[in-house]
Design brief:
Helix content is about 50%, strand content about 10%. It has about 230 residues and is α/β, with parallel strands linked by helices. Strand 6, helix 9 and strand 7 form a beta-alpha-beta unit.
Length: about 230
């Protein structure tokens, strides 16, 4: 098989932290601005930069660069403080560990992330469930880099190419995620889009978004391998 760059989404693809994420933002907003959260934006498939901007705007707070940076720093601190809570209240998605392990055994496969999370937050989330071992966090696309999901894919591909001394053409890049935004980002780059209906989006909506392959979840390891191999 030719080299494959596999770009994993995190939330509701590899882990489920739905019960905690809004609470983190509520605490961060109060800590940084002193304002109590009144409005929670739709976070699915969005980047941290976009979510933070929407949270601030919804509370009539200017999204100045230093305020956004303070929000990011506070978020990292809150997630680290909740490391043990995360492992109790959250969960690894079914089949995620086996899928990561199996792909790590396939020659030529490089695994990293394209996620709306900050890199530190993504690490803590995966580390809490032992899912970090096969993921190269140094070459991913993360949520502080752009408001737009498709930019993160381009960033990750460039980082991976620089590290491995080779180009990863679009057809060798595989994006795995649970939302139509993940699919749209993959298609924008010309990458292979694997939709996983383990989040709020069902199989039909992922197909309609243009996913090349749609899986109900990650429990069928052979189906994941087949989808990645193309």
């Amino acid at each position: 098989m030719t080299a494959r760059l596999v770009l994993w989404d995190v939330d509701l693809t590899l882990i489920d932290a739905r019960s905690i994420g809004v609470d983190w933002y509520r605490r961060v907003l109060a800590e940084v601005t002193g304002v109590a959260m009144r409005h929670v934006p739709d976070m699915a498939g969005k980047t941290e930069l976009a979510i933070t901007g929407e949270v601030l705007a919804a509370h009539d707070i200017d999204a100045a660069e230093d305020t956004v940076r303070a929000m990011f720093d506070a978020l990292v601190s809150v997630v680290l403080a909740d490391r043990d809570v995360l492992s109790l209240r959250g969960a690894a998605m079914p089949g995620a560990a086996r899928a990561l392990d199996a792909l790590a055994e396939v020659p030529g496969v490089v695994q990293t992330l394209v996620t709306g999370n900050l890199p530190e937050v993504a690490f803590h989330k995966l580390d809490a469930f032992g899912l970090h071992r096969h993921v190269d966090f140094g070459i991913g696309g993360f949520g502080a880099e752009s408001r737009h999901r498709h930019d993160l894919i381009s960033t990750a591909v460039a980082k991976a190419g620089a590290k491995h001394g080779t180009e990863f053409p679009p057809e060798s890049v595989v994006v795995v995620g649970d939302t139509p935004r993940d699919v749209a980002g993959a298609l924008h780059h010309g990458a292979v889009a694997i939709g996983v209906a383990s989040g709020r989006s069902d199989e039909r909506s992922l197909r309609e978004a243009g996913a090349h392959v749609v899986l109900p979840d990650l429990t069928d390891t052979e189906a994941v391998l087949t989808a990645v191999r193309g």
